[in-house]
Amino acid sequence: MPTLQITRTTAPRLRVADPDLGFGQVFTDHILVLDYTQEAGWQNARIEPYGPFTLDPATLVFHYGQAVFEGFKAFRSDSGGIVLFRPADHIARLNASCGRLCIPPLDEALVLNAVKTLVRLDADWVPRTFGCSLYIRPCIIATEAGLGVRPSKTYRFFTIMSPVGAYYREGFRPVRILVSDRYARAVKGGLGAAKTPANYAASLLAEQDAKAAGFTQVLWLDGVERRYVEEVGTMNIFFRLGDELVTAPLEGTILAGITRDSVIRLAHQWGLRVSERRLSVAEILEAHAGGRLQEVFGSGTAAVISPVAELRFAERSLMINQGRVGAWTQRLFETLTGIQYGKIEDPFGWTLPILP
Ligand code: COI
């Protein structure tokens, strides 16, 4: 295993108290960096003091967006121990995203070890409050300078870390969602399954419109027929229809969420009926009219589980469970966060202890 050079900071960064943490506004003391060249591959793994990069204005990532990223978390238990939640799955997904963006893959074991070292070095930054965590953001950018549209010959991988609180201002309170019939996030064959900045850029205008209309986020429909639900904001989405838990299938247009997978595996373990299948707006309206649309929630690393109170389709507004958090939503939230914060046993091996 290549060595990891560590240069410790001499100028510790300003801290923010846990109750004042937002999402991704403060960053820890150190950053992990690797560089790629065609001759040497991924090399020069190093941890350095957090700080800006200097890049040529012609750097390819600025012009054509060749980049991928990930997001996962470190949690502190009541006894002070620190775990990472499903880090290997996130690093594997980073490599899957690399494949779609023509970026050379990384050695997953090397990245995991280097991230563990980074978190241990900045361990004191892992918040001590339930609901807060250390968000870990690996990212890869194309670094060659030039304006020809082609894959870069050089890349930089880096990981920054941010102590975070709730992603949405509402926290675990149910949010209002506007169904977007105007914009599309992704189509089959596009980038939808990759965690790449372009997907988030594509979402901004729809989200801005939704916010202006008093909603928290957008529900994305499929980009071709505009009939089937795909994602909500930056999250996967689940619907409880009677005794069935339904979520969109992984057919190339949505992200294979790690929290989505955790929800599905928990629901299976509890003996619930889970379907990864297409779900149309018509079926949702019909289920609501028949009293079978019982719960709706988003799932993602940042917000974990985000209950939905209201879905607005054009002129029709559906209240879900009278705007209250449903029983399955509550149980999933409590179980997932319980596992993450070490309050309940982890039968799946999702948590990786890195400090006792
Ligand atoms: C997540 O739910 O973890 C996300 O993808 C949001 C992130 C882009 C801030």
Short précis:
The protein is of the alpha+beta class and 356 residues long. The chain has 7 helices and 18 strands. The site of 2-OXO-4-methylpentanoic acid (COI) has 7 residues, from loops.
Tally of separate helices? 7
Are any ligands bound, and if so which?
2-OXO-4-methylpentanoic acid
Helix content: 10-25%
Oligomer class? single chain
Global shape: globular
Q: Average pLDDT, to the nearest integer?
A: 96
Strand content: 25-35%
Low-confidence stretches: none
Kindly state the number of beta strands: 18
- Structural class estimated from helices and strands: alpha+beta
Order of helices and strands: EEEHEEEHHEEEHEEEEHEHEEEHE
Question: Kindly, what is the distance between the CA atoms of the first and last residues, rounded to a whole number of angstroms?
Answer: 24 Å
Major β-sheet profile: 9 strands, mixed
Q: For the CA atoms, what is the radius of gyration? A: 21 Å
Describe this structure in words.
- By secondary structure, the protein is of the alpha+beta class.
- It contains 7 helices and 18 strands.
- The strands form 2 sheets. Strands 1, 2, 3, 4, 5, 6, 7, 8 and 18 form a 9-stranded mixed beta sheet that branches.
- A hairpin with a 7-residue loop joins β10 and β11.
- It starts with a strand and ends with a strand.
- The model has no long low-confidence stretch (mean pLDDT 96).
- 2-OXO-4-methylpentanoic acid binds next to loops.
